[in-house]
Amino acid sequence: MDEPFQLEVACLPPHCPVTLRSTLCSEGNDLWESFSHYVSDERGRVNVSKDDSLGGSYIGCEPMGLLWSLRLAVGGRQNIRLRKKNMQTPLVVDISLFDGHTIDNFNTQTALAMTTMERWYMAPGVRRIEVRENGVVGTLFIPPGPGPFPALLDVWGLAGFMEHRAALLASRGYACLALAYINHPELQLGSGMGISYFQESWKLLQSVPQVSADRLGLLGSCFGAAIFILMASELPDISPQCLVAINSPSGFFKPGEGKYLEKMKRLLPEPKLDANGHLMTKDAILAVGIDLERSLQAGGIQCPALLIVGEDDQCVPSIESAQRLEAQMRAVGKGHLVTKFSYPEAGHLIEPPYHPVMRSSAFNLPGQTVTMLWGGVGKSHAAAQEDSWRRILEFLDKHL
Predict the structure, then answer these.
(1) Cα–Cα dist 218/206, whole Å
(2) Which of 250, 271, 219, 371 is nearest to 318 (CA)?
(3) Residue among 272, 290, 286 at smallest CA distance from 372
(4) If you count Cβ atoms within 10 Å of the first and of the last residue's Cβ in the chain, which end, N or C, has fewer?
(5) Contact of 177 with 151, CB cutoff 8 Å
(6) Which DSSP state fits 59?
(7) For 210-367, where are the alpha helices, taking DSSP H only?
(8) Measured between alpha carbons, how far apart are the two ends of the chain, in Å?
(9) In angstroms, rounded to a whole number, what is the distance separating the alpha carbons of residues 260 and 284?
(10) What pLDDT digit, counting tens, does each position of 262-301 carry?
(11) 150 and 216 Cβ atoms separated by less than 8 Å
(12) What SS3 state is found at 336?
């Protein structure tokens, strides 16, 4: 899924306008689609890796634009994220070629040509093991071979449990435990597990025979990143070799003993809505301000830390949190341990490469479902996903 592909069209008339359309049917039976307009060269060829799209879902030279610009089709469900739940099957993407510059009614036209691609998160030989041990709920992915492998705990934000990043990291040589901690039917506390749960998860990962126990790291997004910053900074029995934090709110919230959604809702004033009625929680968090009793003190971190920041994050104050963490580390002489990459026009949902860019989507709060504004602008966010993933892999390779 994180590898680019090359797409070429041949045997067209010279200077012929054509439309390329990609479609994907999700596991929830939702249709995602994207299209782009091209003109063949004097040899009757189109090379998506080199040629500019003249219109459609994106403009300009975007070799992977037909993937990252996928949107939910008109007439179907809206405001939902593309989530791959079964890692043992691929995402299947169909790409079709149409005559002329078309913008709709594709199903009434006959395609000139078509190809199908399979996009996998799990490489051949990766093992997927469901974990239900000592109260820990998650999925462990182990690379091919006997090991021992460097390993990671992988946690997302308050939207819940996801496996795809862990599967992809295992495909890159890391044993990875994707950890559930909120909104999961098998957890004792569905509204969010406390810090002791993550300590137990750490011990469990260390005990896996195929894992090199002295080469463990932490990788988290949003509230998951804040939890891992707390673990690395304040828990003496947790000694990661490195830490990756993607759009963390750690400067404004200190994870406690669970019930995270309820606590956030109680602490925040009435969040603002944008012109489309989408919830903007970042400004509400900033309005509360920094409460030193409630915010995280990161100066205790002893390992290299990589911070990934989307400057258009409309969900949490990730820029301010990263700046605060940097200042705390500098104040105790550890500024050299922090590396930060900050991306203009990138939003909150920084996924692995080529994942569809979602500026907003539905989100479940206690007692209600809202449309959350995540932020992110088209190709800028897509470029951030591609670059940050490369930076993350380089960082993990260096420190694990």
Answers:
(1) 12
(2) 250
(3) 272
(4) C
(5) yes
(6) -
(7) 223-234, 260-267, 281-288, 318-331
(8) 22
(9) 16
(10) 666 665 666 778 888 888 888 877 777 655 445 677 889 9
(11) yes
(12) helix
